[in-house]
Amino acid sequence: MKLAVIPGDGIGPEVVEQALRVLEKLHPDVETTEFDFGARRYHSTGELLTDDDVAALREHDAILLGAIGDPSVPSGVLERGFLLKLRFLLDHHVNLRPSVLYDGVASPLAGEQDIDFVVVREGTEGPYTGNGGAIRVGTPHEVATEVSVNTRYGIERVVRDAFARAQQRSKKLTLVHKTNVLTFAGSMWARTVDEVATEFPEVSVDYCHVDAAMIYLVTDPSRFDVIVTDNLFGDIVTDLAAAVSGGIGLAASGNIDATGTNPSMFEPVHGSAPDIAGRRLADPTAAILSAALLLRHLGDDAGAARIEAAVAADVAARGDQRGSTTEVGDRILESL
Ligand SMILES: NC(=O)C1=CN([C@@H]2O[C@H](COP(=O)(O)OP(=O)(O)OC[C@H]3O[C@@H](n4cnc5c(N)ncnc54)[C@H](O)[C@@H]3O)[C@@H](O)[C@H]2O)C=CC1
Ligand SMILES: CC(C)CC(=O)C(=O)O
Ligand SMILES: [Mg+2]
User: Fold this and answer.
1) Whose CA is closest to 229, among 171, 277, 186?
2) How far apart are CA 126 and CA 189, in angstroms?
3) Among candidates 13, 229, 257, which has minimal Cα distance to 118?
4) 231 in any annotated domain
5) Which pLDDT value is given to residue 320?
6) Domain range for residue 319?
7) Looking at the structure, do residues 182 and 270 belong to the same domain, yes or no?
8) pLDDT (mean) for 299-319
9) Domain boundary residue among 184, 211, 245?
10) What distance in angstroms lies between residue 53's CA and the mean position of ligand 2's atoms?
11) How far is the CA of 221 from the centre of ligand 2 (A)?
């Protein structure tokens, strides 16, 4: 396995270190190439992501990323100029974000909870494409636009992927959008879901406006199995999904090119957490579970299941005594 590793900024290197230990334990022959993308490289060279970088990344079977973003760089420069650019260039159209409440993990929600759903977030379109601009900047008459780009091609492929996952799971798919207000894009999403649904007659289809979906995520998360949604809604929904499922430190994700043309990239849902960076306080579990998604994507289901079992055992045992980043890694490695 040829693995590109992007530790990135903030807590990224701390959590990636632990995920790599786990991957190397299961695949001692893994060949890793480390890339120094992020704030430090940007400050020293001015570079974010060059054509040569992308070509080099394409030489790998998969990419493991920590996080990108740093307070020393204006907001958006690294996020847009590196992270989104990379997701778009590698056509990571399926942004896969499972939410599972593990046994023994406390949810902030009251009562017994049964949370096991996956958000299939579109990863290459929506309002994240940089289609917009600003005029009269800095004046009282400034105007800014950020246009959401939705293509039939882009929606259909992610919707079909979500249906296929629902077919393999509990056969229930929920479209989350805001069709009552964002009528142009919303209509295309809803019609596409209706059309693709005819290929999956066993999957029942539900729809929630995104605002109501946030209510149900807190009051009745068990109603969800597979959620399909656009890039912006999916970003927001999955931070709340993480919070109700035991915290952002446990939430894994995959940025997948489902055609297999480009290497897919696996990363925690969280960001670089500058508020705790450098203090060994970060929970590396999300990065470790992202490594499990990586292995499953590459066909090693048994390895992925071993990591998930080790994590399940650890989160059940740790209670609120998680310990340092390294201690969590040590325990999960030991359990493996
Ligand atoms: N995929 C990526 O690389 C992402 C990058 N970002 C970037 O990260 C930077 C910080 O963004 P924020 O909005 O603060 O989001 P964040 O996800 O980095 O942090 C939000 C909160 O969660 C906590 N947290 C995050 N990961 C944790 C972990 N593993 N263990 C324990 N606590 C954890 C942080 O301490 C903070 O209180 C920004 O530059 C942002 O653009 C944000 C989200 C995703
Ligand atoms: C920083 C953004 C580009 C990414 C993000 O928040 C996410 O993918 O969850
Ligand atoms: Mg996010």
Assistant:
1) 186
2) 11
3) 229
4) yes
5) 87
6) 1-92+252-336
7) no
8) 97
9) 245
10) 20
11) 23
